[in-house]
Design goal:
heterodimer; A: Alpha-Beta Plaits; 20% strand; B: five-stranded parallel beta sheet; five-stranded parallel beta sheet
Chain lengths: 153, 420
């Protein structure tokens, strides 16, 4: 399956991916309205790597694990893997207990701003190309299939 | 091949799913002693409060069972396992043959000896959807509710009842709430927060007797205090439901003894979930780890092995994610009776924000996070992998944890999905 991969050497840490992630998961699909009127949590974490003389960054989101701990820990049946292998969260079933946050080894599931559910990457399934990939100004986030990802190893 | 599963909760459901993933044609039958399809058991407090509606209680969609040809028999209580005949007899008298059997019978509430408790109509447990429904039916805004037990179940019952009754009193024998999970400082923070919501605690005391004919009107405590009572909820703990296994001659200790493939002492009979003894990853002791994720993992392991695929159960350790009145508690590993090499309380921003890490011999052994939970799973993974902290990029006590804790090569391997 296709997953999102980040490239540290190219990431500027600008945070645009987070902005567009929020917009993609908003009702308005508008970056300003999503920010000002809709309280949406980005499903991306920007990691900062401190080096002796510099700082580098990369964007991290759900890895859609082959054997996802979050699904096994989910008490309500909200977290599931769809037919395409994408790990998704049914908002209407999620109670925000954070059992998934407790077990995600990447720290890639976050409590939503309203506290009622969790935010996690769904590869913008309802949006098209992942918004973070689509809007990264420096091609630091790419959507790659298994073969392309294998080449990175 | 005939697969029979006793129990329809986390372990039973995931076992059925695992069996079907490997065996497309075998018969899979689940016997449930409850009246409802599999539901998220921890959701019963959310149901009580009204936060979760009945239609969202189910753990899996009905299509989950249909599409996998898993037949679930409700109100079917297994009475006896006939090992020689390889069959299970239900309370209806009906006999179910099996080639492979899974016992995923979970726990039963522990009822402590309390004088005059028998045959009282207003006394409830709080372990099943049925319990929650019964309680919901009898409460009203004038009810004075007494909850015996200040553990996780008792406190969640208190939260579920909040705002729906006149008075809630929690009685516990220990000197603190959630005594099996938390030490005193962390427990005090949780208790103070719950008390702000007008729930009363009486600690270091137990209920010794109840007064009333058919209906408890008063309870008498070990310190001779007497309390008025309209509804009594007994939530002092659970015991593994192992009577079936015991009577069949399957080896048990505190719970059913299984090997790493979840097979019991009896060939072709497996057990999983809250009714078995697991190996604790941290202490290496055999103990009951009554955790949802552990039950799912063990159920899956049992299912795979029942279907002929050798698979070892993943190790586990205690962990909890729970909230009370908006205060979020996340804990894992060893917490009680340990010296904390690091504790952090952000008293400026919010006095109830706590992060405590239990570190020994260059390893993280456990943690308690209160209202400071983002990325907790990275800590959990450090425990799970027995990671040497000195090999990491920074001191985990020095700042908020992130995936940047790992050196570049490990980070890369993990992101690309290479095995550890």
């Amino acid at each position: 399956m296709k997953k999102i991969y980040a490239f540290e050497s190219k990431c500027l840490g600008c945070g645009l991916c987070e902005v567009y992630c929020r917009a993609a998961h908003s009702k308005s699909k508008d970056i300003i309205k999503a920010h000002k009127r809709e309280n949406i949590t980005s499903a991306i974490v920007i990691e900062e790597i401190l080096q002796p003389k510099a700082v580098s960054y990369f964007a991290l989101q759900c890895r859609h694990c082959s054997d996802p701990k979050c699904i096994k820990a989910c008490i309500s049946g909200a977290m599931y893997k769809d037919e395409d292998g994408i790990v998704r969260n049914k908002k209407e079933k999620c109670v925000g207990c954070l059992s998934c946050v407790l077990v995600c080894p990447f720290g890639a599931v976050r409590k939503s701003a309203d506290g009622k559910t969790v935010a996690k990457c769904d590869l913008c399934i309802d949006y098209g190309l992942p918004a973070c990939v689509d809007n990264c100004p420096n091609e630091a986030i790419k959507l790659l299939d298994d073969k392309e990802a294998e080449a990175l190893k | 091949m005939k697969y029979l599963i006793i129990g329809n909760c986390a372990a039973g459901t995931s076992a059925a799913e695992a069996i079907r993933s490997k065996d497309k044609t075998g018969d899979i039958t689940i016997l449930s002693n409850e009246s409802y399809p599999a539901y998220g058991r921890p959701l019963i407090s959310y149901f009580l409060s009204g936060k979760v509606k009945p239609e969202n209680m189910s753990y899996r969609d009905p299509s989950f069972y249909e599409s996998r040809k898993i037949s679930v028999l409700l109100n079917a209580c297994a009475q006896k396992i006939d090992i020689k005949a390889k069959s299970v007899i239900a309370d209806s008298g009906k006999k179910f043959d099996y080639d492979k059997l899974l016992i995923a019978s979970g726990s039963v509430p522990f009822i402590p000896p309390i004088k005059n408790l028998a045959n009282q109509k207003n006394v409830f447990s709080f372990l099943s959807y049925g319990d929650a429904q019964k309680i919901k039916e009898v409460i009203n805004k004038d009810s004075k509710v007494i909850i015996a037990g200040g553990g996780l179940i008792g406190l969640k019952a208190a939260e579920g009842l909040f705002g729906k009754v006149r008075k809630i009193t929690v009685v516990d024998l220990a000197d603190r709430v959630m005594a099996s999970v938390l030490d005193k400082p962390a427990a005090d923070i949780i208790q103070n927060h719950i008390e702000r919501n007008e729930i009363e605690f009486i600690l270091n005391a137990s209920i010794t007797a109840v007064e009333g004919e058919q209906k408890v009107g008063r309870v008498v405590l070990s310190d001779s205090q007497e309390l008025e009572c309209d509804i009594l909820i007994i939530a002092v703990g659970v015991r593994p439901n192992i009577s079936l296994a015991k009577e069949a001659g399957i080896k048990t200790n505190k719970a059913i003894i299984v090997d790493k493939y979840m097979q019991t002492s009896q060939k072709d009979i497996y057990a999983a979930g809250d009714c078995v003894e697991s190996v604790d990853l941290i202490s290496n002791e055999h103990k009951i780890l009554a955790l949802w994720s552990n039950a799912v993992n063990q159920g899956e392991t049992a299912g795979l092995n029942m279907a002929g695929v050798k698979h070892e159960a993943p190790t586990s350790f205690a962990m909890n994610a729970i909230s009370f009145f908006g205060m979020q508690l996340i804990s894992a590993g060893l917490i009680c009776n340990t010296d904390y090499s690091y504790a952090f309380a952000d008293s400026v921003a919010n006095e109830s924000k706590v992060r405590r890490l239990n570190i020994a011999d260059d390893r993280l052994l456990g943690f308690v996070l209160i209202n400071d939970f983002q990325r907790a799973g990275i800590y959990t993974d450090l425990i799970n992998n027995n990671t040497k902290l000195s090999k990491l990029e920074y001191d985990i006590k020095s700042k908020d944890i992130g995936f940047n804790i790992y050196p570049r090569d490990i980070r890369k391997d993990k992101i690309l999905g290479k095995k550890d």
